[in-house]
TrEMBL record, chain A:
One of its GO terms (biological process) is maturation of SSU-rRNA from tricistronic rRNA transcript (SSU-rRNA, 5.8S rRNA, LSU-rRNA). Residues 140-184, 224-244, 280-299 are annotated as: Disordered. Residues 167-181 have a biased composition (Basic and acidic residues). GO terms for cellular component: small-subunit processome. It comes from Paramecium pentaurelia. This is Neuroguidin.
UniProtKB/TrEMBL annotation, chain B:
Belongs to the eukaryotic ribosomal protein eS24 family. This is 40S ribosomal protein S24. The keyword Ligase does not apply. PROSITE patterns: RIBOSOMAL_S24E. The keyword 4Fe-4S does not apply. One of its GO terms (molecular function) is structural constituent of ribosome. GO terms for biological process: translation. The lineage of its organism: Eukaryota, Sar, Alveolata, Ciliophora, Intramacronucleata. It comes from Paramecium pentaurelia. It holds the Pfam family Ribosomal_S24e. One of its GO terms (cellular component) is ribosome. Keywords: Ribonucleoprotein, Ribosomal protein. HAMAP family: Ribosomal_eS24 (MF_00545).
Length: 299, 149
């Protein structure tokens, strides 16, 4: 009993101070509520604060009763402990919710401080400009030594490490490579098994077909014709347009070949078709003394 | 073998007792392979009689090196005779070819357009060479001479 009392006597002044501060806060909340506010949020906040303080005082009162009951060796079974537990849980929840409302509460308290008059009466209208942020109160970095920056130049902050796009692309590439490796192995095994099983010719899949026709300029009509022929196991007759296209393609293909020199002969023949060979006069090929003999004869 | 055979859309047609497939031949720097060579190759791969294999529609792509075609592999010769069209049987020599000329048939056709009734049927019958009974008889004679492997 004496030990408990000594602890109680030591802590009692602190406890009494706390209770007095709570009482003061309650009064300030009442003043807030009196102030005519235009927004709804401020009314709600004041109500919230009143409720919070009321629950705190209730909890404290119950705690006090519990302590006194215990000190007087009272029967604790008779004391409603559930109520204490309820109040404590409520308070915990309220304090968690207060984190979200902290900004508006700070604004309100600031607003209350700024509201002054000559007669110390509360002003009705809100001065929004008074709630502007103050650059003077910006936190200054006192860790910067003057020796390191004698000129006190602006040192930009270091950038934090972040995941670059290259890293993300690398992951994708790695996955693709893994896929390719597995596909290669699967193809190898498939080819080995196919060879072992039967002598039947290799069956082409649609993917092989796509690879075959990849890059070829095929019209929709040609594709449709090919598909129809394969599905119905027939050959459709070639149209005039197709024949014309084949002829044009042949001509184009023949021009691009560089190793076939026969074409130059044909080209020359075609070019020189209309021209006649000019016959040189007799004696033009002769040289020297034979020329003189001929000249004499003509004379 | 001077060419490589690849198949596509292999289908087992139980109604017509045959396997039908589209064939792709790869023959780089070589001319188009003949039908007989293709038939031999397919018969050896699928372990069938050469006489039961039918290849048609061989078409080389522009530029060469690749041909596409179709193939039918019948179970027996009887089914082949039953289900194959007459023009293909004529190509093989099972049914003899038609007598007469193309021009003669066109003349008959122009006559048929002008006539009506019983006269029309008379003209048609006189010209028609591939009668059902005749063809049946020709097939039977062929089968009698056919010796299976």
């Amino acid at each position: 009993m004496s030990g408990g009392l000594t602890y109680f006597n030591e802590d009692f002044p602190v406890y009494s101070d706390l209770v007095s501060t709570i009482n003061d806060q309650l009064q300030s909340i009442d003043n807030l509520h009196v102030i005519t506010c235009t927004t709804e949020n401020k009314n709600n906040i004041s109500q919230y604060l009143r409720a919070k303080n009321a629950t705190m005082t209730k909890y404290l009162i119950h705690l006090n009763m519990y302590l006194l009951h215990k000190l007087n060796y009272g029967n604790l079974d008779e004391f409603p402990i559930d109520q204490l537990i309820e109040d404590k849980i409520l308070l915990q929840k309220i304090i968690q919710a207060q984190k979200k409302l902290q900004y508006s509460i700070d604004k309100l308290s600031k607003y209350q401080d700024t509201q002054t008059n000559e007669d110390d009466q509360v002003v009705d209208q809100v001065e929004k400009l008074s709630l502007k942020p103050r650059i003077e109160n910006l936190h200054k970095d006192e860790t910067i030594d003057k020796a390191s920056n004698p000129n006190q130049k602006y040192v930009p902050p270091k950038l934090a490490a972040t995941l670059s796009k290259n890293d993300l692309n690398k992951q994708k590439q790695e996955r693709r490579e893994e896929l390719r490796k597995t596909q290669k192995k699967a193809n190898l095994i498939r080819s080995i098994l196919d060879d072992q099983e039967t002598d039947k010719p290799k069956e082409m899949t649609e993917r092989d077909l796509q690879q075959l026709y990849y890059g070829r300029a095929e019209d929709e009509k040609q594709i449709e014709k090919r598909k129809y022929e394969e599905d119905h196991m027939t050959r459709l007759p070639t149209t005039r347009d197709e024949k014309r296209r084949e002829r044009i393609a042949e001509r184009k293909a023949n021009v691009t070949r560089l190793d076939d020199f026969q074409e130059f002969e044909t080209i020359n023949k075609v070019l020189n078709k209309g021209t006649k060979k000019i016959k040189k006069p007799l004696g033009s090929k002769l040289k020297g003394s034979m020329k003189k003999i001929l000249k004499r004869k003509r004379r | 073998m001077t060419f490589i055979v690849k198949t596509r859309k292999v289908l087992l047609n139980k109604l017509l007792n045959r396997r039908q497939l589209s064939v792709e031949l790869l023959h780089p720097n070589k001319p188009t392979p003949s039908q007989e060579s293709v038939v031999k190759e397919l018969a050896s791969k699928y372990k069938a009689d050469e006489r039961n294999v039918v290849v048609y529609g061989l078409k080389t792509t522009f530029g060469g090196n690749r041909t596409t075609g179709f193939a039918l592999i019948y179970d027996t010769q009887q089914y082949l005779l039953k289900f194959e069209p007459k023009f293909r049987l004529r190509r093989r020599g099972i049914i003899p070819k038609r007598d007469g000329s193309r021009k003669g048939w066109k003349e008959v056709k122009s006559k048929l357009k002008k006539t009506r009734g019983s006269e029309k049927t008379k003209i048609y019958i006189s010209r028609k060479t591939d009668k059902r009974e005749v063809i049946r008889a020709q097939k039977e004679t062929y089968l009698k001479g056919f010796v299976g492997k």
